[in-house]
Structures
1.
Amino acid sequence: TSIHEFFGASMVQAAYCNCYPLLPDRLAYPEHIPVEKRKDHIYGNESELSGMLKDRILNIEEARHTETRGFVDRYDWGVMAPRYDDYFREISGRDA
């Protein structure tokens, strides 16, 4: 993870591809994880990261079958394109 990050684009891309995220509790990262899932994906310090990483290694099949795309699918182009279209129509004053 980055030290300086405004959005977390690479993390969003990885989660969209169902890579299991383990993320620090800082910057934009927590915003991308549903509140009810944060205890499984967000760590506060190196000791927590170490424990979470060990748990994921020992339970690798569970991690491999964890669906994470839903954490970030709101950014999918199929969702965002119509929003951009509506926005640009609105600011341009055009109906079509």
2.
Amino acid sequence: TGDKKLPTIIHYIHKSSETMNKKKLLSAIASILLVAFAAPAEAQNETFSRLKAFATHIVQFNNNCPQEKVFLHFDNEAYYLGETIWFSAYVVDAGTLLPIAKSRVLYVELLTPDGDIIATNKLKLVAGRCYGCLHLIGRSETFSEGFSNKVNVINALRSGFYEVRAYTREMQNFGEGRYFSRVFPVYDAPETDGDYSQMQFTTTKTERSTNTRKTSKKADGLNIEFYPEGGALVEGVESRVAFKATDAHGLPAKITDNLTINGQQVAIEHEGMGSFTFTPTEESEREVNVTYEGKSYKFKLPKAEKNGYTMQVDNSKKDSIRVSISRNKVSPKTIGATLMCRGNLAYFDTLRWNNDKATFSIGKEKLLPGVQQITLFTEKGEILAERMLFVRNGNMPNNVKIAISSDKDSYKPFEKVKIEAKVTDNAGSPVETFMSLAVRDGDIDNGGHYTDNICTDLLLSSDLKGYIANPGYYFESDD
């Protein structure tokens, strides 16, 4: 039927996936892609065929090399030296987010603030599940001196921010960026046992720790990074430019008023982030002026390219995504566009231009939930523009409802805690599954403040680089 029917065909097979395993499903998609790409003979040419071949290769690669994801559920958000980090691990297929039994061993590492690996656990996976612990103590040796044995602690740990990362051997094929990673504050051991009110880091630093990681240069009160939509500014083409404002500590800037960028009032949408439109020319000033807390700052926009493409994505509708592409006169017209989610191809087409503009829509009902990546590419496989967006659509698995009840409202230290958990689906029917539960003192603010969970991690944080402030915010509603 031609390549225009490809999204419908993929959607049909996706709906039938309940009765097919993933390997058979992807094989079927690859076979139908080959048929669907058989456009009428008069429409085929060498360039068009090469663009379609990339989409076919994506499906075949994902069929032969399925990706895995790991999530670790921890018992706390922060720790003290001498304590034990307990965790429960989940290994899932990156595409379906269902448990996968491909890998049999999970590697869990503990890294110091200097980046040294001080512990590696190799845990047996059963149906994508395992559990274990990491001890926040140095390596020790026992030696004799006279008539008594003494313990000498070697490489004693110091307080600071420690990283726990986890991966399978299969995930190593896709680079460390695919590993699960979580950073925890680890405080000095309390001077009095059980007194966790003091949260302090060791003030002395080793020679290594002062020289390994250089701090980046930051402004005193405000830093702004600019992100042209699609990846780059192009001369003579209007572009939407996103920005992220942070304070001197790298946290979202608490800006209550609008920013003024080159005389244009720009609203802050969330956590110091917003966007504005800009059309660069050869004479355009790259320098922008910003006023914040009574101070004036100057920043520079990225340099505009002589030729290229800009992308504007409208993700505000619940049922579809609308994509608009603009180009300047010197850029080639015959290019391909794909949309992928966690390595799975969901959309492919070639752009059809009208006065150097091209638009297309993608129905959200065909998409997996999570981070989507739209890519424009040439017949040689060169990436021209990329855009990531988040979709939480109807394909999101039904959230289970968990009701927790306890025999008392409050408990004394080390008193026995009795709780009951009732797990049901949206219809109120009981749900049977393996789950992990962490219980801690709700009155203690341990300084962790990590709002990530299995949902935000598997669908959002693990597919983006950099720090995401309060990722749970993006799951509060469907707006």
